Amino acid sequence: MKNLIKSAFFFGLLVVAHFAQAQNIPSDGVVIRLDNYTVEAKADESLSVDFKIVRSKFYQKQQTPITLTANAPEGIEATLSSNPNKGDTGKLDIKVAKTVKPGKYTITIQKDQLSRHKVVGTIITLAVSDAGITQSVK
Predict the structure, then answer these.
(1) How far from chain centre, in Å, is Cα 108?
(2) Which residues have a Cβ under 8 Å from the Cβ of 103 and sit 6 or more positions away?
(3) In this model, does residue 20 exceed pLDDT 50?
(4) Using an 8 Å Cβ cutoff, are 125 and 105 in contact?
(5) How far apart are CA 32 and CA 55, in angstroms?
(6) Is 27-129 CATH 2.60.40.10?
(7) DSSP state of 122
(8) Sign of the CA dihedral running 78, 91, 124, 98
(9) Backbone dihedral region of 44: left (phi > 0), alpha (psi from -120 to 50 degrees) or beta?
């Protein structure tokens, strides 16, 4: 009886592990994932954001190349310094101009318009603070 309980417990762990892993892989197409979807920067500052490309089983088998683009509002330059054509990671470089006012801005990473592949893009929130203002408490 003790062995039966151990076997059932082990089998249950395998089932849970399988479904937990399956949730990370999309059923179709490609998904862009980040560790943090909100980043902070000051005006006149640059930063980089790493992202992951998660491919469905079909796209993993086909080694399908993917071309991505990044869009940002005026005064914020977003370029893909590492475009994951066939890889599984990429890097987005963000440069905030000195003239950008403090606030929250949206940057999108999406598939290139000429691409016919199923790519789910992502949105990054950029919180910009003023570079010249520092607060002191007395």
Answers:
(1) 10
(2) 127, 128
(3) no
(4) yes
(5) 9
(6) yes
(7) E
(8) negative
(9) left
Flag whether the pTM goes above 0.85.
no
Q: How confident is the model at residue 126 (pLDDT cuts 50, 70, 90)?
A: very high
Q: What is the 3-state secondary structure (H, E, C) of 3-59?
A: HHHHHHHHHHHHHHHHHHHHHHCCCCCEEEECCCCEEEEECCEEEEEEEEEEECHHH
Q: How far is CA 61 from CA 33, 54, 116, 133, in A?
A: 20, 13, 17, 52
Tokens 């940057």 sit on residue: 107
69-86 pLDDT, tens digit per residue, is 888 999 999 988 876 666
Q: In the predicted model, what is the mean pLDDT of residues 72-101?
A: 85
Nearby residues of 67 by Cβ (< 8 Å), 6 or more positions away: 83, 85, 111, 112, 114, 115
Confidence of residue 93 (pLDDT cuts 50, 70, 90): very high
Q: Which two tokens stand for residue 111?
A: 């598939």
